[in-house]
Structures are given as C-alpha cells and as structure tokens.
Amino acid sequence: MRILAVSDQVEPSLYEHFDPRRWQDVDLIVSCGDLPPGYLDFLATTLRRPLLYVRGNHDGRYEADEFAGFWNLEAAPWQEMGLTIAGFEGSPRYNGGPVQYSEREMGRRVRRRLGKLGTVDLLVTHAPPRGCGDRPDLCHQGFESLRSAVLNKQPRFLLHGHSHLYSPCGRYSRLGGTMTINAFGHCLLSLDDAISACA
After folding, report:
1. What does pTM read for this prediction?
2. Could you give the count of Cα atoms lying within 13 Å of 52 in the half-sphere of its Cβ?
3. CATH match of 2-198 with 3.60.21.10
C-alpha cells in the first residue's frame, strides 16, 4: 500500500510538470488540507485512485460540493483494503474563521469518533498533535487531545499538514509507537515498509 500524501502547497511536480509514470505505483491519495479542490481533482482523475481528505483552516472558503467524489475522513473513517484510516479537520481557533476548533471542541470530537473504532492504522489530521511538529503561536499549536488520542490508539502512522517545512519543524517525529509525518508539499509513504521516499 503506497500513499501519496499532500498538504498546504500546490507542487509543480504534481501539477504543471506532472509525469504520471513517476506515480503509477500509488494506491491511494491522502490530503491533509489547505489545498484547492481543483488540484485534488486533477490528482485523483489523472492517477485514477481514491482520494481521502480532511479540510484545513483555509479550506472554509470552498463549498462542500467542490469536494464531491472524494472521501471526507471527517465524516467517516475509510475502511477498505484491510485498513482503517480516520481523520480530523481543522486547526486551533485563532481568529474565529471556519474549520477552527477550541481544544475542548476537538477533544469532544476525538473522544466521540475514535472511541467507536478499534485499531486505527493511519490517522490523518490537518493540525498536528501537541509537541509533534507544531509551533508556539496560537494558530500553529498542536492539539493536546490529538496527542492523547495517538498515545491511546497507537496508530502506525499519523499524517498532518499545517506546519510548513520552512519553519523549524521537521518532517518526522515519533509519539509513542506512532511515526508522525508532516505531509507539507508531498510525501510518498509505504504502509508495508514504512517511509519509502519524501521530497
């Protein structure tokens, strides 16, 4: 199972200079948010693969039907190919805009939805867990409730966006037994062999 994860930035190698032969072994596309629906549609249509997504804090400007045809992990987990993939949209509330949540709101959502699931193989979020690739400013702080959920559920991987890689944040960190990966731009992930390549 090879996943093309994308987040936060439209990349020329996946759009204007797209070479489908380079990505032909991708099984699934996962968006961690803050990307135009047209870009996601291009990837899903060109690669002819399912696209799973969560919305980021800048995605509130798009209508829900612009994401039609993609699997919204906020609405329901994806359980196919022997995998369970769950997700949570949004960032910490910092200016009252859409797709932003207080810590309390995120905590309620996490407890309500993850409590019903058994094993989670991959957790997809926009904002990271607290202490895993987040930053000290309010907008880019991670959620403590996501941190607790990861330590409790121990998914093999967590993919997130929101923290741009030109900040001091790195792409990888560990939280308990979970490898957390910042998908800013794009990252190619093999669930069989762990990380195969990122760029």
Report:
1. 0.93
2. 27
3. yes
